[in-house]
Amino acid sequence: MTTLLAASQTAALLPYPALAREIAALLADALVRVPARLVQALPGGASLFVMPAFDARLAIAKLITFTPANAGSGRPAIQGDVLVFDVASGARRLQLDGPTVTARRTAAVSLLAAQRLAPGNAGPLLVVGAGAQGRAHLEAFAQGLGIREVRIASRSAASASALAAHARTLGLQASVADDPERQLADCPLAVTCTPAAGVVLRGRLRDDAFVAAVGAFTPAMVELAPQLCRDVAARGTIVVDTPDAQHEAGDLLQAGLDVARLPDLRAVVLGPARPSPGPVLFKSCGWAGWDLAAARCAVDQLEQS
């Protein structure tokens, strides 16, 4: 029997600390397989994503649309579902809300990277972009790192104010920042969660900075200035979420960096060494393996309840 879960039900099964732990466990699981995802361009500039993955127990297919034109319309940019199947029986076990899975697993990946890579994790946290990903990252870093102060920058003052108000309900000190560049001197933690239509950070990062950049996931998209990326490569560490980033990480590709030579999150999770001194840039482009980790986490949460 299939359990069909709405957005709130899906979120309840994906607590950020547990999801980050499941992502680390998945990276150590030799039985995980993630075929190449299909990205089909649609009329009007939208895209259809078909993303399969499986392990010895579960198989998933994530089916979502990404419609950039929905920005500011009240309609979500990402819509769809994640279908979860039992490998042994072939039965469909769960249908998870796709946008909720996308937001929470992306934020949990950034959280895991910060837990393993951030030189310091006390904050303040700078969040650039106040949409679904900005909210998810704020919640994940609050729950998983214990940050107490957040500063929010967005092209939409109303969205930034709304996210700041949400942060205060979580017990955080929150403020709206008109210029994210000026916050870099005070914020050792930063995440960029924008539609990636243009550069949002250009300045030099602190020596103890950790930046998670998640908005740009095609070669044409960008959030970080090329010089910022090259500067981190010269005096710090750049880590990508998966090797697929060599074809997708617009920020790094436009900076002329050899992305194929950069370490990925699996190497960080399985390796003993922390990065060299200096700022850390974590570049995330997305992977169906993260959705499989979310399915594993959801199934485990259900079985424990």
Automatic annotation (TrEMBL):
So which residues are the signal peptide here?
A: 1-20
User: InterPro entries annotated for this entry?
Assistant: NAD(P)-bd_dom_sf, ODC_Mu_crystall, ODC_N
Q: Name one Pfam family in it.
A: OCD_Mu_crystall
UniProtKB keywords: Signal
The UniProt entry, under Gene3D superfamilies, shows: NAD(P)-binding Rossmann-like Domain (3.40.50.720), ornithine cyclodeaminase, domain 1 (3.30.1780.10)
Spell out the NCBIfam families in the cross-references.
PRK07340.1
- State the protein's name: Delta(1)-pyrroline-2-carboxylate reductase family protein
Which organism is this protein's natural source? Caenimonas terrae
